[in-house]
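Practice problem: predict the structure.
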Amino acid sequence: MDRETRVFAEKHFQSLREGLPGSACGTPDCVDFIEKPEALSYADFFKGYLLPNMPCVFSGAFTEGWGSRKHWVTPDGKPNFDYLLQNYGDMIVPVANCGVKEYNSNPKEHMPLRDYISYWKDYIQENYSSSKGCLYLKDWHLCRSTSAENIYSLPVYFSSDWLNEYWDAINVDDYRFVYMGPTGTWSPFHADILRSYSWSVNICGRKKWFLFPPGQEEALRDCHGGLPYDVTSSALLDVCLHPARARCSPPLELIQEAGEMVFIPSGWHHQVHNLEDTISINHNWINGCNLTRMWHFLQQELHAVQQEISEWRDVMSDWHNHCQVIMKSCSGINYEEFYHFLKVIAEKRILNLANGMACGTAGRVSDTGLGIQHTAFDVSRIIEVLTSLITNPDFQRVDTSAFSLQPEELLQQLEEAITATASL
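Answer:
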């Protein structure tokens, strides 16, 4: 990132401070298609898609050098079952049954990859049907067990990835996934975890996407307040069940071809169908551009928990702590862990800034390789959200006595670090 892009970004967020990060936006007429890698710089993507929170599709030229596109696919464009079995057959993978609705998702089981591929082959032989149902391998953390080096390389556009940076630092989890499934497998209507961005590359096969910008999903709620499971269902036409449906704009629809890479912005609800036997690689990610959306989402999640158990507020000891526990079980994170997430990223950025200033360079000193200007931008975004967190009444009830660094002390360090970058 250069200084001009950083200034552009800071002005953008300054203009947004009066509004809510999750407010509705209009639906663009179409999704931009980016043909040539040399036609789009990181700054172009940052200003044109990350900041305005708009989707786009990258052509197969951006991924043509990936090992998975060479080895996981047969010459006729089908999944290379022999290669997958030889290299990963004994690995245990999560498999969802697309034919069974469990709340607004699908139940999962775990099995060796070789058993799933055996099912897949039989499914194809039986004209895409099986008594076992329509099974979809989803959320396989392959690269926690093996190096990604010969599978794919992270596109520079998505390299500012705090979510995976955090999980890698504490060595607990990640949000890097492989999906595999036959024609007809699909993912129900949802927005990505923690209001993260996502990117998805078809290694082989084709997908159909239905995209709804933030806020549009509210018009799809049923009379009980629930979001739909399947936005292609005729049930949405029932005005008694979905009284606000007419206020929802039609979704953006796109067909993703083999090799192409789709960028899904923060908070965009979507539904995805495999039109062919398909393998994809996907990441969820968060950075300074959608950090405020994540924080706003967490506040909404806690409020929902508090509303749900409000009748116990006066009779349950430590009610506020119980709300945080329930929130973490539902969302995977609570306010305490959100602070630790900010702290891990903040301490790395403070160190990067100190090293960059000591070297007297605006070059590639950050962990992401995106430069000291990007690091300074990151720090400015953490300052804004950490300031809001510290003043939040629910966070003030969190016991921080055991924290290795108090939030106010971290904020002071960040402010000192950003002040030192004034000359950049």
